[in-house]
Amino acid sequence: MSVAGESARAEQMREKARHMTEAAERTGDPEQRRRLQEKARKLHERSEQQSGRDGDAIPL
CA quadruple 32, 36, 38, 39: dihedral positive or negative? Predict the structure, then answer.
């Protein structure tokens, strides 16, 4: 995959993590909130690893 493709993929992952975090904030179920927050955290970590490969780390 090209560097541009890797950057786009990392950005998509960060965007999905943001959506999960927002969904977690809206839910009234504490267990669902915890699951969404954990998924968002893991996805954000993966996006940072992806960004690190192409030198394009962008913090949330």
Answer: positive
